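Figure 6 in text form: structure in, sequence out.
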């Protein structure tokens, strides 16, 4: 990961408790334009941050896989879904399917995903700051600010916007 991305994560880690309190307060305040603001800050962050120079989500945080994800991925790698699950997946403490190991086995050394077109929906949706209903996602945004440098940037910018 680029040094500047590491610095963003180090700052998010240093400001952990401040950021947590800020996002909890923001949730109570329910700002009307929150989706619009977070989506804009997300776009600005990803204009500067290149996932191919990072891949931290694929290295550290596995997605949850639904049956349709498993069927699609199994087809992509030409395995039967049951065999795919046996080879690559395990069931976590919430009884959800997740990858057996991290970094993800489909992540290349060049940070490309070898199953990109068939990747799980959770991978497509990460880090969620591009979606609607941000009020309900502030907790996950806090957690992702410790993993994703783009989200760390979004949270710092949110503090400026709403303080
Ligand atoms: S989504 Fe975030 S953590 Fe994942 S590769 Fe992109 S910048 Fe890194
Ligand atoms: S399936 Fe692809 S996008 Fe999802 S964690 Fe693995 S490498 Fe990353």
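Output sequence:
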């Amino acid at each position: 990961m680029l040094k500047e991305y590491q610095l963003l994560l180090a700052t998010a880690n240093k400001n952990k408790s401040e950021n947590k309190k800020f996002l909890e307060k923001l949730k109570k305040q329910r700002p009307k334009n929150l989706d619009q603001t977070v989506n804009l800050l997300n776009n600005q962050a990803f204009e500067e941050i290149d996932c191919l120079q990072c891949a931290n989500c694929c290295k550290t945080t596995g997605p949850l896989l639904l049956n349709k994800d498993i069927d699609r991925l199994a087809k992509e790698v030409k395995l039967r879904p049951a065999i795919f699950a046996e080879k690559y997946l395990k069931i976590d403490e919430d009884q959800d399917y997740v990858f057996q190991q991290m970094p993800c086995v489909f992540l290349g050394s060049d940070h490309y995903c070898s199953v990109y077109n068939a990747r799980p929906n959770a991978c497509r949706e990460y880090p969620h700051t591009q979606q609607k209903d941000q009020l309900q996602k502030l907790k996950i945004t806090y957690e992702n600010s410790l993993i994703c440098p783009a989200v760390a940037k979004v949270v710092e910018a949110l503090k400026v916007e709403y303080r």
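Caption detail: Residues 58, 63, 104, 106-107, 113, 115, 119-120, 123 surround iron/sulfur cluster (ligand 2) (CB under 6 Å).
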